[in-house]
Specification:
41% helix; 217 residues; 8 helices; alpha/beta
Length: 217
């Protein structure tokens, strides 16, 4: 997965973001001010920055001028249009206003990483191996025949692993449609994936929401 720097002066929020990023497989470095962020930036290469705007020794906009070679999401309580415009004019990839839900943050992180080609090309879990680039899956070294739609659904669940993904979001991402009615077709495809790949214990049904791929390895 990706290497991400979280720059947030409130320790509880910083720790919460970092914890959830690590749970889905990312490597995380934490900073609570501009000085520490600059030091981390000099010491290591990052795939993504999550930047608060209001920091004790500088502001996130000024800090990002020093780090503009790396994709960034501003995460801040400043939700006015002029602040968002300033962030995007600096070249930020997204802008998330506090308070926010962790699943939304993680999905936005995935979206930016996908656009910047900084996400995994291959995923392994036990004897399951999924090649996203080649769109193939093997189980115990044996190729598993998946339809294009089944593979798209599997990819969405894996890329958002440990996150509950709604049926509406799945329809939008895997089928390319917006539909608020009956979503039985997703349930049918989920059952096929569970059976073909032996993932009954990994693909969980989330009541009144959708599905979650659990990876606690």
């Amino acid at each position: 997965m990706a290497k991400i720097m979280v720059v947030e002066d409130e320790k509880a929020i910083n720790d919460l973001i970092a914890l959830n990023l690590r749970m889905v497989g990312h490597e995380v470095a934490q900073a609570r001010n501009g000085k520490d962020a600059r030091r981390l930036f000099k010491e290591s290469a990052f795939d993504l920055l999550l930047l608060d705007v209001m920091l004790p020794d500088t502001d996130g906009f000024t800090l990002y001028r020093y780090m503009q070679t790396v994709p960034a999401i501003f995460v801040t309580a400043l939700g006015e249009t002029r602040n968002k415009v300033q962030g995007f004019e600096l070249g930020a990839d997204d802008y998330l206003v506090k308070p926010f839900e962790i699943p939304e943050l993680l999905m936005r992180v995935n979206a930016v990483l996908r656009r910047t080609m900084k996400i995994e090309d291959r995923y392994e879990y036990g004897d399951l191996c999924v090649d996203f680039h080649g769109r193939t899956a093997t189980k115990g070294g044996v190729p598993v025949e998946l339809t294009a739609q089944e593979f798209s659904l599997l990819e969405i669940l894996i890329r958002n692993r440990n996150i509950a993904v709604s049926r509406q979001q799945i329809l939008h991402d895997a089928w390319g449609i917006s539909f608020m009615g009956e979503t039985r077709t997703i349930d049918v495809h989920i059952q096929r994936l569970r059976k073909k790949l032996g993932l009954d214990n990994q693909i969980k049904t989330v009541y009144k929401c959708g599905y979650r791929f659990e990876d606690r390895s």
